[in-house]
Amino acid sequence: MLSADVSLAPAAAAAAGVRPLVRLRDVHLSFGSTPVLKGIDLDVFRGQAVSIIGPSGSGKSTILRCITGLLRPQHGEIEVDGTRVDQLASERDEIELRKRVGFVFQQYNLFPHLSVLDNLIVAPVRILGRDKADATRTAYDLLKKVRLENKAHAYPGELSGGQQQRVAIARALAMQPDLILFDEVTSALDPETVGEVLTVIRDLVRDGMTCVLVTHEMRFAEEVSDAVYFTDAGVIVEHGPANALFRAPVSPRTREFLAHTPSAPETAHAAPPRAPLALDLRHFAI
Fold it and tell me: Where in the cell is it found (predicted)?
């Protein structure tokens, strides 16, 4: 666990009167007749890094899209820093929310016709109304933060996948959000470039940025997360501090999932080794 702000356990934070920055209660969402989320409860406190793990199709990315208002649940409450996301009534309200919530997608979604620098300054200038010179200075600082200060005038097509993803992270930070959501941001990358993106996220967590990560990188999730939620079939099966969930999961389903995930840490409740088969050699002719 790297962050140090409200990296209290949620129960302790609640007892201390600290309200979650992100709060989901009994969230249900269906696509047509297909239920996707079936009563999700989730808390993220300011300064925390929270990871959501689980098998494909379990609802992880859908939770992120509900937090940022891209999807609206049929039932339940979603609150981000006092704003009821499930009750946003206008496009203006949605824009105001997205100024405060950064979202880094699996695909980089950079503007291919703009340089790296212009990708970073276009939204702060047009949406936040910032002075272009000020936005440019901030952009250079962010490129340095993601170790790409020498790529300011390159175009996305000239960058590797890992470099493009780091630009996407810098672009999200340029809006000075209260919260950043990462949706499996390494899944489309070559193995060689995964590490450089994880290093940037690790630095953000150390700096106290509030982050929610959907990830298949289990060891990384254990390292950086204050809390981890395991989802399966649209429900939260188990959640708790990262070390407890990865090393001593309570639910048999969590143990089964981690046992079949190559990058998962060894759990304390792993199945014991099978005893060797005992043979009585007297029954065999030599």
Answer: Cell membrane
Q: How far apart are CA 48 and CA 6, in angstroms?
A: 6
Integer Cα distance of 121 and 127 in angstroms:
10
Does the structure show a pLDDT above 80 at 175?
Answer: yes
pLDDT value at 263 more than 80:
no
pTM of the entire structure? 0.85
Predicted confidence (pLDDT) per residue in 182-231, tens digit: 999 988 888 888 998 999 999 999 999 999 999 999 999 999 999 999 99
Break the chain into its structural domains and give their ranges: 10-258
In percent, the amount of the chain with pLDDT more than 70 equals 87
